[in-house]
Amino acid sequence: MSKNLKNVLVTGFALFSIFFGAGNLIFPPTLGFISGDKWLWTAFGFLLVCISLPLLGIVSVALVGGRTEDLTNKVGKSFGTILCSVIMLSIGPLFCIPRTGATTFELGVQPLFGNASPILVSIIYFSITFIFAVNETSVVDKIGAILTPFLLVSLFIIIFKGIITPLGSPVNTGLENAFSKGFTEGYQTMDALGSIIMAQMVVGDLILKGYKTRKDQINMTIKAGIVSAICLGTVYGGLLYIGATSSGIFPKDTARTGLLISITQGLLGDWSKIIFGGAISIACLTTSIGLTATAANYFSKLSKERVSYKSLVLAICVFSCFISNYGVETIIKLAVPVLVTAYPVVIVLIITSLLSKYINKREIYAGAVYGALIVSIFSSLSSIGIKISFVENIINKLPFASQGFSWVLPALIGAVIGAVIQGTENRVQSTEHR
């Protein structure tokens, strides 16, 4: 095996590990379940967000210099700091970390011990997270290295069984706008948000492997991305399909974790809740420890070490412990306003950065981003029941609004306005120099 091929495979599996979170497994089966016979359209939207956007996010960071700040600071340094902080809070103590604890309880503990206290379980769970994260031990990495392949084998068995002997057939569930449903549900994995944070680590690893030029880094990232995409597509696509085959079997109001338990038990029997639930629980714990350490490191550096790493680890664990007791479904609902606001901004940043060869002025980046941000803020307010009638009417008339992409035209208009401002400034400067 050549050195390049080996590095492509190693980096590809590393990318897969970064984006593959045990807590994310609850989304594809539910999407398939509510989509029924439209599951292919939903899968297309979901996989676009969960596979294509994260990989493009890493490529875009590599294109603009290899650091997260090189991407976010194109709009402005203060904006970049705020955006990175919001993303880090989202993939950290606000949503992702608490969701791992809630998922562990609902998938790993509750099916085996029906009377278990969620408060006690979360205290134990986040105490373990604290012990490992505060000491920055490598033990958890070794556990993850053993457990992730085991979890993957379990998933492939479930998917294979679900395809060969499905629980049922996909039925018409009456879902409209299946593509946009899959696209916006993909926000909940937060992979695209995390990609622009993790990209710096991926590019740094490629540099250590000897790929010094930007061209080589981008080339390796794309090839490794294909490896990662195949793995992610197989897992997410397979889970979506087996969810669709159960669309006519279980009650429509079945919770996400309950659906995954019911499907695995239906395919593999009662013993699956012990092995599969246990594997997911430990995988969630490794994710929790990794995200806690990452978030604590980020905010400690942001404070210029005025707030210590250990203090932040403690604060994150305590806060996450509290939030996790609200349960998976509530945490998902709490995340919606933040994700509806942040995702369009990150998507626009990624796309414009991929076009950085043609866009070389901050005004264009800023115009596109702020155009999307204005609309996404109002969409976010609407998602929590705060509606401003005349603004709602305008947004609803925008192209693609019914599909959930009302921010597209404002982003384009913002980019044009930025280009006009840039052109005006250039003409003024040219006149002054005469």
SSE layout and pairing:
Layout: H1 3-19, H2 27-35, H3 39-64, H4 68-72, H5 77-94, H6 96-109, H7 118-135, H8 139-164, H9 178-185, H10 191-208, H11 214-245, H12 256-268, H13 272-302, H14 309-324, H15 328-354, H16 362-383, H17 389-396, H18 408-433
Helix pairs in contact: 1-10, 1-11, 2-3, 2-11, 3-9, 3-10, 3-11, 3-15, 5-13, 5-15, 6-7, 6-13, 6-14, 7-13, 7-14, 8-11, 8-13, 12-13, 13-14, 15-16, 16-18
Organism: Clostridium liquoris
Transmembrane segments: 7-27, 39-66, 78-100, 112-134, 146-167, 187-208, 220-242, 274-299, 311-328, 334-355, 367-388, 400-421
GO molecular function, one term: L-leucine transmembrane transporter activity
What does this structure look like?
There is one protein chain. The protein has helices at residues 3-19, 27-35, 39-64, 68-72, 77-94, 96-109, 118-135, 139-164, 178-185, 191-208, 214-245, 256-268, 272-302, 309-324, 328-354, 362-383, 389-396, 408-433. With 434 residues, the chain is mostly helical. The chain has two domains: 3-336, Amino acid/polyamine transporter I (Up-down Bundle), CATH 1.20.1740; 359-434. Helix 3 packs across helix 10 (191-208), helix 5 (77-94) runs antiparallel to helix 13 and helix 6 crosses helix 14. The protein is globular and about 80 Å long. The mean pLDDT is 86. The chain crosses the membrane at residues 7-27, 39-66, 78-100, 112-134, 146-167, 187-208, 220-242, 274-299, 311-328, 334-355, 367-388, 400-421. It is found in: Cell membrane. It is a multi-pass membrane protein. Component of the transport system for branched-chain amino acids.
